From TrEMBL:
Keywords: Nucleus. This is SAAL1. Signal peptide: none annotated. It is found in: Nucleus. The keyword Nucleus applies. InterPro entries: ARM-type_fold, Synovial_Prolif_Regulator. Belongs to the SAAL1 family. SUPFAM superfamilies: ARM repeat. One of its GO terms (biological process) is positive regulation of synoviocyte proliferation. The lineage of its organism: Eukaryota, Metazoa, Chordata, Craniata, Vertebrata.
Length: 257
């Protein structure tokens, strides 16, 4: 029996284009690996400026974020909510790049976006366990809760709440927070002085989750008082202000209402 003739073989150029199109997609998404690599390389260049530039030029560069780069990294932020993209970022150790930004960059907007991406990635259990297993990463992220930028504080709080909600790693984060005294001070300061409702709500959720997970930490924080922040002038009063978690949380609750 005669069979139908086979369709003509595609040209070499057609085959290359098809292979490239299929191989460039991240998982089952339509997002481009090549484009994402380009954005990540741009991030690396931001935090590792050329050595022949003056330090003052570097500082100014790090504080300002170009509009094109902001738009691109915000796209990555949106994309990181997809599990395939998050796994791809994890596979190629993009978290190390974001951590490098947090350690070196002075640009508040860039820091906020990078924490936001890192906050999306742990929504998936495998990635959360991996990110949480690195002590140095944990310390860098906890230090972000001492930041002065409200949007960065909000994204950091969201990230911590996500990790604390994963049973496999919750205890790891509780112990890190217990061993990081400045977290208590920062939480009290935010709750007692911030007027950002979204931030107050998210930090309140973090505190509630911590107290629910660890009674010992709850009792320590309730009984604890710390001196005022180092950058606050002491000459304003004869005695240093002492933060106490209960009145600070109550003050935050007043702002939320």
């Amino acid at each position: 029996m005669d069979r139908n003739p086979s369709p003509p073989r595609p040209s070499c150029d057609q085959e290359d284009e098809e292979d490239l199109a299929g191989g460039d997609c991240i998982g089952s998404t339509v997002y481009s690996k090549h484009w994402l690599f380009g954005v990540l390389c741009g991030l690396i260049q931001i935090v590792t400026p050329e050595s022949d530039k003056s330090s003052s030029d570097d500082d100014e560069q790090q504080i300002e974020l170009a509009e094109e780069m902001e738009n691109e990294i915000c796209r990555v932020w949106d994309m990181s909510m997809d599990e395939d993209v998050a796994l791809f970022l994890q596979e190629f150790k993009a978290a190390d790049i974001f951590m490098g930004v947090l350690a070196k960059s002075k640009c508040p907007r860039l820091r906020e976006i990078c924490v936001g991406i890192l906050g999306n990635m742990p929504c998936f259990q495998e990635i959360c366990v991996s990110i949480s297993s690195y002590e140095d990463r944990g310390q860098v992220l906890l230090q972000c809760l001492c930041d002065s930028d409200p949007p960065t504080l909000l994204e950091t709080s969201r990230l911590l709440l996500t990790c604390l909600s994963q049973t496999e790693v919750a205890s790891v984060w509780v112990e890190r927070i217990r061993g990081h005294p400045s977290i208590y001070t920062s939480v009290c300061f935010i709750m007692s002085s911030s007027t950002n409702v979204d931030l107050l709500v998210k930090v309140g959720e973090v505190v509630d989750k911590l107290f629910d997970l660890n009674e010992k930490l709850m009792l320590e924080w309730i009984r604890k008082g710390t001196p005022q922040l180092p950058d606050q002038p002491q000459e304003d009063s004869e005695e240093q202000q002492v933060f106490s978690i209960v009145p600070c949380v109550l003050e935050g609750a007043k702002q939320v209402r």
